[in-house]
Amino acid sequence: MKVAVLDINGKDTGRQVDLSNEVFAIEPNNHAVYLDVKQYLANQRQGTHKSKERAEISGSTRKIKKQKGTGTARAGSIKSGVFKGGGRMFGPRPRNYSFKLNKNVKRLARKSAFSIKANDKSIVVLEDFNFESPKTKNFTAVLKALELENKKSLFVLGATNNNVYLSSRNIKGSEVVTSSELSTYKIMNANRIILVESALEGIESNLSK
């Protein structure tokens, strides 16, 4: 798959790169994408939710009324969940929501996500760039040149670049990651994927296995 390489001004450099069909042009597996996104979101959950049950409520333990003859239901404790101030029945308890996923499934999910975005013409290849110092206005200028203002965008770098990362940090909707930090969720969540040339080799070598 041939894709034109743009510069940070949004201009065509006259060069093209060949995106691997094994990564960017496979038949997407929607279930693998679903599983990987589900795992990512599950791993974000703290699982610290807790409510007090009847055994943890402070209150009298005496039987509040006689067993028979009142014309109402039997009741043995004021701490029962049916009474105001009682413990919660079947309330949430701390738990771990994470689950394991096969590496091959995760790899298939990321390739499927890239293929979906490539099919939607949502992938842009950008030549390598850097800023002399971290400045938000520099990154804003790049977004404007690429017509990415008010759009969710994911910039994928070949290696860590603090100047670019810090310049993007205050801009809502834009995220900068390295090729090793990619996830299916981040790919699917973005409206446009901007791949820096130096990131292509790492992406294709990791996902072509």
TrEMBL record:
UniProt keyword annotations, A-Z: Ribonucleoprotein, Ribosomal protein, RNA-binding, rRNA-binding
Gene3D superfamilies reported for this sequence: 3.40.1370.10
Pfam families, sorted: Ribosomal_L4 (PF00573)
Entry keyword annotation includes Isomerase: no
Keyword rRNA-binding among UniProt keywords: yes
Region described as Disordered: spans on this chain: 45-77
One Gene Ontology term, aspect cellular component: ribosome
InterPro entries from the UniProt entry: Ribosomal_uL4, Ribosomal_uL4-like, Ribosomal_uL4_dom_sf
Subunit structure: Part of the 50S ribosomal subunit.
Family: Belongs to the universal ribosomal protein uL4 family.
Function noted in UniProt: Forms part of the polypeptide exit tunnel. One of the primary rRNA binding proteins, this protein initially binds near the 5'-end of the 23S rRNA. It is important during the early stages of 50S assembly. It makes multiple contacts with different domains of the 23S rRNA in the assembled 50S subunit and ribosome.
Designated name of the protein: Large ribosomal subunit protein uL4
Classification of source organism: Bacteria, Pseudomonadati, Bacteroidota, Flavobacteriia, Flavobacteriales
